[in-house]
Design brief:
The longest helix is centred in the C-terminal third of the chain and has 26 residues. It is built from 13 helices and 15 strands. A hairpin with a 2-residue loop joins β3 and β4. The radius of gyration is 20 Å and the shape is globular. By secondary structure, it is of the alpha/beta class. α1 crosses α5, α6 packs across α13 and α8 crosses α9. The protein has 3 domains: 142 residues, Nucleotidyltransferase, domain 5; 64 residues; 125 residues, Nucleotidyltransferase, domain 5 (2-Layer Sandwich).
Length: 354
């Protein structure tokens, strides 16, 4: 399915892509290829993200992309980038049936009518959502509107990202909201659950976490919660008066020793995520069967168990590389299982572009 991006530099599908998840604290990048129906992961890298206020300036993006390219040691020049949660919007709307190009124009010039916001100087893309069985059974004349997933971002922000990529000697192939990445990766890695179940995809980021609810292959709800792994690590620092690096190690490897500190963050985080599930279940009259977790903090079994307790449904991690053919250097091949939960967004961005 590969959900849409905000920007596509070319309609041509590429056979190799450098996909980059521009995280707040850590940038995750992967080099992927497509050979027929097979997706190949040939390299990955995790680098400290640059420090900046609000949107990353083009010149800083340029230097960072050069550093990523050098570290990942790849000749791939077409780049698929993700935005953070504050730089893009995602909405589900009903809109009169019309060609996609016309939808984009209408949203550009009259966003308030459909998005309840006056979003001037935005660029939008649209993804048609499948009709429900009830809609399909109605007479054609009774079904005048189409369900659509909208993604958008400020035109200046998109232009600056494209400029930054170009100055780094690369080509901006795709730009998409980071929230879409795990959805695309999950479809490839867990096709049965994706197509046949109602599940929640939860990505625990650095400053914020996201939840996407999928109903039989359709993204029906997405939400951002302003709590992430940094809050968990900071709680350990406050409890033990240790360095950030030491606290990160304890969070992943010995979280039981700081149970009280972690629970002070896991409880409100889990309740916020559960509120999104409750909202969906009330509106759709369907139960979410399982929560699938990604993000660096989910390497901690204690964190996963704590979230499961608050979510009140089964919660488990999943491997976004499980359906990929791995052609990694020996050292990376030995470490991929450990870092895989952090690569879901980047892998999903690669799938969207291939």
């Amino acid at each position: 399915m590969a959900l849409p991006g905000i920007f596509s530099g070319s309609k041509k599908k590429r056979d190799q892509i450098l996909a980059i998840d521009l995280g707040t604290r850590t940038t995750k990048a992967v080099v992927m290829q497509r050979r027929g129906d097979v997706y190949v992961l040939s390299r990955y890298v995790l680098l400290d993200a640059p420090i900046f206020d609000k949107a990353m300036p083009p010149e800083l993006l340029t230097e960072h992309l050069k550093a990523v390219s050098q570290a990942i040691e790849s000749k791939a020049r077409v780049v698929s980038l993700t935005t953070n949660v504050n730089d893009a919007i995602m909405r589900h709307i009903d809109i009169p049936r019309m060609p996609l190009d016309d939808m984009r124009l209408i949203l550009k010039h009259n966003s308030r009518a459909y998005l309840q916001q006056d979003l001037q100087n935005y660029v939008f893309d649209c993804h048609l959502l499948p009709e429900s069985a009830g809609d399909a059974s109605k007479p054609t004349s009774a079904v005048q509107k189409q369900k659509v997933l909208i993604v958008g971002s400020k035109s200046q922000f998109v232009s600056e990202m494209v400029e930054g990529v170009k100055s780094a000697g690369m080509v901006a192939g795709h730009i998409l909201p980071g929230m879409i990445g795990p959805v695309n990766a999950f479809e490839l890695s867990e096709p049965q659950a994706f197509s046949n179940e109602v599940v929640a995809l939860i990505d625990i980021g650095f400053k914020s976490s996201t939840i996407c609810i999928l109903q039989h292959g359709e993204l029906v709800l997405s939400r951002v919660v302003n709590m992430g792994g940094d809050r968990l690590t900071s709680a350990i620092i406050d409890s033990m008066e240790i360095s950030y690096a030491e606290a990160e190690g304890i969070k992943v490897g010995m979280a039981g020793e700081v149970q009280g500190a972690l629970e002070s963050i896991l409880t409100p985080l889990g309740r916020e995520l559960r509120a999104s599930i409750d909202f969906f279940e009330h509106q759709a009259d369907r139960a979410v069967s399982c929560a699938y977790l990604t993000g660096g903090s989910t390497r901690s079994e204690f964190v996963v168990q704590g979230l499961q307790q608050e979510l009140m449904i089964e919660a488990k991690t999943w491997n976004p590389t499980s359906a990929l053919k791995l052609e990694l250097p020996p050292q990376q091949a030995g470490e991929i299982e450990q870092v895989a939960p952090q690569l879901a967004v980047a892998i999903g961005a690669g799938i969207a572009a291939l």
